[in-house]
Design a protein that fits this description.
disordered C terminus, alpha+beta, disordered N terminus
């Protein structure tokens, strides 16, 4: 594609006498009006687009895409189109007939299968939070689970992982979709992202553009292009007068697409007001809004890192030399087979042999005079070529840390024990620990942006709701009911995994469980343990085990947070209510809560102490034999009227208090 030269250097000259020079500013976000803003933003994007670094990077991506796709693609937009250039009149020399061993695709797909198969779950945790905050944090976790399933986040992540294998990064774009009333996330091809290398020297650029080719009809259906107002009419006019996109960059056909640049500038400081998000084309400004976030809506996952800049290092880049040499070696082997490994008949010059007699007829009679003809087969391929080929393939897998057995879905012979197989997997996975951690952070960053954009959509009166799997039924979760302030929670990643899916691995797991007697154990704990093996959802188990604690916390939180009193009943955990109520009372006094709430806590504790001790009712039943008094020790006086004195004497042990006398587990 022929790119226009940058107009920025000339446009910086103030007072230029040349009327053809468009006066734009490199600080496009400071433009005084919309026309200057559009011209400056387009010029800034095209300056990055035409820079030597960007063009060299795109050429490198195109080469790596060819290696991964195993096809002579001419544009990253054409990776899904199979194009074959014969290159020779002989069909056996065309690229489509060449034998190839694609180690780039094998390594990338194997690494993706080993790492990207894990689904990272966003887990929201509170630190010192009350019951309501903990409830919202759990709801926010479920909200993220439902959102990830609805937008296909994990499928998107796997695609971005593969992009990071052949390009310098896999890119996900998270945005607000007001048509669907939901935050969405989509894949971005790497050459669509325009970043100035100087601005991104330390990996923290302040300006970023996305170049897209969009149909005019789609742009005309956007909310900011609809309506009867003068602003909407002006936007539609700019869309219609925009120049069509270069067909050479696409599929070589005339289309109704126009080139659109979407740009972001991060604010210069926490109190600065210069954060801006724009959508422009060569026809003018299409959309403009303030951008108050300190991040771009893009997340980049990188296979390998570089010392500077935002781009990473692709696995394909590490394998370019080996892949090219493997291709050359295979072509040499192929030509050796075609030229040498063909049977030939040697006929001495001057011998009287009729060539028609040399045929594939069974039992044919060949008449000759002189030296008889000889069937000769030359040595086809030198063995050293195959030795070199095996060495290159092995070196490719060693360089990326991938086991050749994993790429072929095989296990070593004789390695049948489950412990040994897991140990081999752990040793192989150590090489990918850092990559896997980056991939988990990639998911968490997307979900953080989703929460922030959902919060902004909710502020614009958009009701966000997702469906998430609950304990038994599908839950419909409103964002309003789970939203929390950012300083009230901590976001942690939780990579989930399930049992092996291969039949042989499942059989091995069953044998292990049978050997541990877990299958035959029918106790509730064993039943729960077996259910957790298939999916380690400890929350569903702990939600039952901690029901008593949650019930007491709910009652106490209602008193301390809202001043609502709900008395304890006979089903509450008596000991837990007394203990937690006492601690809440001390904390309320230290925090100087209103006296009315402190009095509610005293009442709560007293009513909990007045509840009958578990087993007391049965002890007072008619079938219970009377409790005989303990024998008096020698020298002790008679028991005074009214029973045992509460004041301990020299021969009477102290009676426990009401709290300490309650048995554990009541």
């Amino acid at each position: 594609m022929t790119r226009e030269p940058s107009t920025l250097p000339r446009s910086h000259v103030s007072g230029s006498s040349n009327p053809d020079v468009v006066k734009v500013s490199a600080r496009w976000w400071k433009a005084p009006d919309d026309d200057d803003l559009a011209k400056s933003a387009v010029a800034a994007a095209k300056a990055i687009e035409a820079s030597g670094q960007q063009q060299a990077r795109e050429k490198q991506w195109l080469l790596q895409a060819r290696l991964y796709a195993n096809a002579p693609v001419t544009s990253l937009y054409k990776m899904g189109v199979r194009q074959v250039s014969l290159g020779s009149k002989r069909s056996d020399e065309s690229p489509s007939n060449r034998v190839n061993y694609n180690v780039v695709q094998s390594c990338v797909d194997t690494a993706s299968a080993k790492i990207a198969k894990n689904k990272t779950r966003a887990l929201f945790l509170t630190s010192g939070g009350n019951y309501d905050q903990q409830r919202r944090a759990k709801g926010l976790t479920k909200f993220c689970d439902g959102w990830a399933a609805s937008v296909g986040l994990y499928e998107l992540g796997q695609q971005c992982f593969q992009d990071a294998g052949w390009a310098d990064a896999g890119i996900a774009y998270t945005y607000e979709d007001y048509d669907s009333g939901q935050v969405m996330s989509e894949r971005v091809l790497p050459h669509e992202l325009l970043i100035d290398d100087t601005d991104a020297l330390y990996g923290t650029p302040r300006v970023m553009f996305r170049r897209r080719h969009v149909a005019k009809d789609i742009l005309l259906e956007q909310p900011w292009a609809k309506g009867d107002g003068e602003k909407a009419k002006g936007i539609r006019a700019r869309i219609n007068q925009a120049n069509p996109a270069d067909p050479l960059m696409l599929n070589g056909t005339a289309t109704d697409l126009i080139t659109v640049y979407e740009g972001w500038h991060l604010r210069s400081g926490k109190s600065a007001k210069d954060g801006l998000h724009v959508i422009v084309c060569d026809g003018g400004l299409l959309f403009k809004e303030a951008w108050d976030f300190d991040w771009f809506p893009f997340d980049l996952f990188k296979w390998g890192t570089r010392p500077t800049g935002v781009w990473g290092q692709a696995m394909a880049e590490q394998l370019i030399g080996i892949q090219i040499e493997i291709g050359r070696l295979l072509r040499t082997i192929q030509r050796c087979q075609h030229l040498c490994s063909v049977p030939r008949i040697l006929v001495e010059l001057g011998s009287e042999i009729v060539e028609q007699h040399l045929s594939n007829e069974v039992g044919a009679i060949i008449k000759y005079r002189g030296t008889k003809p000889e069937l000769w087969v030359a040595a086809g391929v030198p063995p050293d070529l195959f030795v070199q080929l095996d060495a290159l393939v092995k070196k490719a897998y060693e360089l990326t840390g991938i086991s050749q057995m994993s790429a072929n879905s095989k296990k070593p012979e004789g390695l049948d024990a489950a412990v040994a197989l897991r140990e081999m997997h752990d040793i192989e996975s150590e090489r990918f620990v850092i990559v896997a951690q980056r991939f988990e952070k990639f998911y968490l960053s997307i979900m953080e942006k989703m929460i922030a954009l959902s919060r902004r959509m909710y502020a614009n009166n958009v009701k966000l709701r997702v469906k998430a799997p609950g304990t038994k039924l599908i839950e419909s979760i409103d964002f309003e009911s789970v939203d929390m302030e950012e300083d009230k929670y901590i976001l942690r990643d939780y990579p989930t995994s399930i049992l092996p899916t291969m039949p042989s691995a499942k059989l091995q797991t069953v044998q292990e469980l049978y050997g541990s007697q877990l299958l035959s154990d029918q106790t509730p704990a064993a039943v729960w343990a077996r259910s957790l093996l298939d999916f380690p959802d400890l929350e569903s188990y702990l939600s039952i085990e901690q029901a008593g604690l949650n019930d007491v916390q709910r009652l106490i939180s209602g008193i301390t947070e809202h001043g609502d009193y709900d008395p304890p009943d006979e089903y509450i955990s008596r000991e837990m209510a007394i203990t937690l109520g006492h601690n809440a009372l001390l904390k309320a006094r230290a925090d100087k809560l209103p006296e009315a709430r402190i009095e509610m806590l005293r009442r709560f504790i007293q009513e909990a102490m007045d509840l009958p001790t578990p087993g007391a009712a049965q002890a007072q039943g008619p079938t219970t034999p009377p409790v005989m008094p303990a024998p008096m020790p020698p020298g002790a006086g008679p028991i005074p009227p009214g029973g045992v004195p509460t004041t301990p004497g020299p021969m009477i042990p102290a009676v426990p208090s009401a709290v300490s006398a309650i048995p554990m587990g009541a």
